[in-house]
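Lab notebook: predicted structure, single chain.

Context: the supervisor wants predicted structures on file for every construct in the current expression panel, including those that have not yet been purified. This is the next one on the list. No modifications to the sequence; it matches the entry in the shared construct table.
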Amino acid sequence: MAFSVVNLSPTGEATELEAGDIVFDLTEFKLPARCCKLVSVSMFNFGVDGSGDPLAFEGTNLQKYEMIFFQSNEGGSLASGGLCTAENLSSAKALLNKPIAFLKLTAQARGLFNNFNVLANNIPEKTDDAFPMSEVILTPDFSTSSHKMYVALRADTLNTNYTPSGASDFSLHLGFEY
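Prediction complete. Output recorded below exactly as produced.
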């Protein structure tokens, strides 16, 4: 059994983000092996000022995001209007992208860090919940010789509208076992 971390810097956009919007679109990465178990996801948002991040915990509500994995990008981008617009990929085009896995991410508690925020797949839905298990199996399209995959992130629930401060504020880390 081996472990590996794939580090990505998905491209965002300094535009107001609302629930249902694509935070970052199909970002290519290579699996460390032909079949991998995704055991952890951590995403850091560095587009935060010292006043706190509206992506973070507020009261009893956590910010929620949906991460979707695809084997192809043949069907095109999830949001034809660009980043920070609503997902509008047709069913036919989505099938061409070959979706393979779906994962929910939840933002870390506000105030944990002054100048950045953490989103992860192991943060409970409510403050008194146990940590969920969110492992998924990823495999590339076996009709190709490549280990290529694609990942995108969609905002599910936001407490307030949010505008990232820049185009490269995100650092995504995918932990694999294979």
